[in-house]
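chain below, 731 aa
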Amino acid sequence: MPGFELPDRMTSLPAARAEFDPDVRQAARDLLAAPPVDILTRLLHDQESQVALLVARHVIEGFRTAADHDAPTGDPVDGLVDDVAGRVLGLRADLVRKLAALPSAPAEVTAAVLRERAAVALIGGCWLDVVSQPATQPAVVVNRLFGQHFRLQGEGNPRKGVHHLRRVALEQAGVHLPDVGADDFAAKAGTRPLTALHALFYLSLSRLPASFLPEVVAVHYVCHALGVDEALLGLPAPLDEAELRAGLAEYVELTRGSPTGQADRRRLLAAVELAMTLEREQVDVLTEVARREADLPLEARVAAIIERHRPFAGRQHRDVRVAGRRLTEVFDDPGFDVAAFVRTFRDSRQLKPIHGGDGRFLRAIKFGGPMFGVFDEREAAVFAEWAARAAAGDLPDIEIPADRCGEAAAARWAAAVTASEPSGVRFAEARPADDRELFHRLVNIEAFPNTLPIARTKALANLDAAEVLFGRGAAGRYTDASWFDYTPQALLDRVDHIYWDKLVEPYRPLTEIPDRDEVVFIQKTFALGSLIDGTWAHRIGNVGRYRRTSDGMLAAIYADEMGRGDLRKNHITLIHQVLRSMDIQVPHIREDAFLDQDELPDHLYGFSIHQICLALFPDAFYNEILGYNLGIEMFGLGEMRLHEAQKLRHHGFDPIYEEAHLSIDNFSGGHARQSAEIIIAYLDEAGRTVGDHVVQEEWRRIWRGYASFAYFVEHALVREATTPRTAELVI
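prediction:
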């Protein structure tokens, strides 16, 4: 069987295929029938379900088939990158000119434009969120993309990340919005269907980057090279175009030797055209929004405010009448006509001035009035201007132009998404025959979403089982999972105890080295876990979830495991080097051929399966991942690693994997120490934002995660703790 060889020149995974549970089909169809903003909100909330993944496939398929450009002809390689770059940079110049020509006064025009773009701006780059995963590492193209993604995320500091910087720029422009994943984000931003659909396409790519790698490469280059958000917000480009172009060129060069190279280049070019179309449409809709806002009559602005607040006008208005009708009856009328209401309200006694001063309505919305705080300053100013002009008789008849910004394009994309039928999708329950097949499915989860329920059940079962060590864990050889009540100092004391008493003090250099075959066998027992190194954290920091200090710290640890984009430092690269030095050849874990490999023992799959199961649910098992992270990072230190490195060097094998962990996991400031600090930071924030009463509950889940790591390491202790004792005979 041919083994995997470095470097990993993969340019795409096998043709898209995906298995879903049968009951997912209708649930996805129901969601696809909802308005685009509702679909977008659901996918922002949900990164763990089959429904979200199936909807994402429909969205991607719909956009790919509905793109109104000619399919690329021929099979260009030479000159392809320069041609793409030339067209993209030409479009950038055109878009920048259009954006510069947008009306800038009054400030409401700029605010309306920025609010409209916000849904795209605040998820931009999400397509790289999980491009680095077990199925794609250590591919050359993935490492380059991941290195750039880490920089875009602020290198472990969310407040330096591009999304935070864009949000700050929005607020400096007077646009204050909820978090992009909040239920009311689209309503507060006034996101139109076209913008919601554009954002939905980018978000869908973020859910399936391994399946659509050529498309991700194309979208990444086009969107960052065009730089629409930086042009709008006056920010510097987070990635230099020359660097982006070098990455595109590297990918195209890799396709020369790829068995799927021709198809990958066609997909790349089609996605370039699609991304250019979407960003061109974005600037067009922003131009429409700016013109509409600039030309909007005063009455139309009043009507928009009334429509925005009408759903919240409750029983407290039961005695308020306009033209003889109760206000609650008017607003509850299914045939409510906002233009007619504005006309009636303008002529009502509520708006007329009293003794040369404000009328009843303006008094009501000022400080001390019963409606103070209902309208913000901008809205109150609009009402004041309206009342003044009404009193002066300076208002024309009511004309409220329909809002049709982006309507035609939105209808085209929405119809395509609704009608889409993703290829390669089948519906069946997952029934993996054994751990080996389950592992294969988990590694390739984009192809086997129907395995997600099994993964969740497995993770919960392992976490429950691991609690046996809450009472017996102190006897562990390398761990101590025994329970203790949390305080920051108590955690640091436990970590110090484990480090010194279990990992460092027992160490003595080996005086006798096992023979070559035994050393190789032991390395084989470790290899499966090493081949998915870092996986537990690979979904931390996805869009809408990268805010807390602990998010950034954990994402930085994962970045270190992947070499921060440097293939020489990537831990998956290192373990393959070690295996090669021992003449151990296995296919890549993503390949079907790995199912038939006979080098790595079957009985240790459980440890790796548990790690991936946790990783696939970064929302549901966030706490448990923090605890697991502490266990695995401390395991990189001390006696075991030192002995393994000594044995490998003795037999002339490469010890780089062991040496890298002894270095990067160091207890002074490395991953082992950082892992404890991550937990402290998370629980500190939980206590300050929710209350101290939640800290111990949150802590219990974290320590379950640590115990679940110990459960797979302390084999003898677990056997002793779970084996029923023989009852003593009563004589």
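The first strand starts at residue 18 and ends at 20. Confidence is low (pLDDT under 50) at residues 727-731.
thats it, cya
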